[in-house]
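Entry type: protein chain
Record version: 2
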Amino acid sequence: MSWSDAQEMKVFAGRHSIELAKSVCRHLDMPLGEARTDVFPDGELIVTIEEDVRGRDCFVLLSTCRPVNDNLMELLIFGDTLRRASAKRITAVIPYFGYARQDRKDRGRTPITAKLAANLITTAGYDRVVAMELHSAQIQGFFDIPVDHLPAVPVLGKYLQNVKDEYPELVIVSPDVGNMKVADMYKQLLGTGLAVIDKQRMNGSDVKISTIVGDVEGKPVLLIDDMISTAGTLCEAAKILEANGATEIIAAATHPLLVGPAIERLQASPISRIIVTNTIPANDRYMPLGNRIVELNVGELFAEAIHHIHHSKSVSGLFRGLIGTKR
């Protein structure tokens, strides 16, 4: 990146996404923007931009993960602060978009909170959104501003190719029917077999696995999903795969929420390796899983997307030949 780029463009970070933002800035060869978020005694947030942004192309990197409401509010305040400071363009870079699973009314008298969050982000002053692996692709249409939806394939795919080299008979497994297109994309990318598990969700944290379609007996398997939340789906799938003769079970997911009983379930599961990205800060959550967890850095991918946006180049061109339609 040239000196003039570093002057014209600024990348800022929310409190809980600083490490990923620093990685992005290292790849862009520029310093992280100077900003500060303070918390008042009553819990209110105030964001202060500590450098000139007038006429600049500004990016705010912040995952709206736990604490979801604090992070979402900080993202909104960042946008309002930059707008009032006369930034030329403001882009929300959201590695993990919270509330994405509330994308439709599945019963009466319930909200579509993903749409509400999209409206709030637009109202806050953002001109564009960059997000990775939205839970459903339709969420792009919830925004009244452009959305760049980044797949994690370039990062996960590179590592999973090594897994395929290690296990030539590897079979890709989708833990539910809704994820089939993504699993099929990895099947084609890696040149493996494919299987799918028929899942019935009982409630928000419990699932019932009924059937596996495909041959996994005597073969290592790779479970692919977009996120690991309470790990109920993943661990139940691992059990049925083990019962059906899988020799080794590896799991890969973009977003490691790991909430509720997730860690305990993964510890007790037959999964030997759990591959995730750093869209959500790890902190010390992974410690109980030891060397079973592998975290991949998406910083370079976001840096490339930011660079393309700043220079008005195609972002989808970064993934040509790799993108599969999701859900």
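Comment: The first strand starts at residue 9 and ends at 13.
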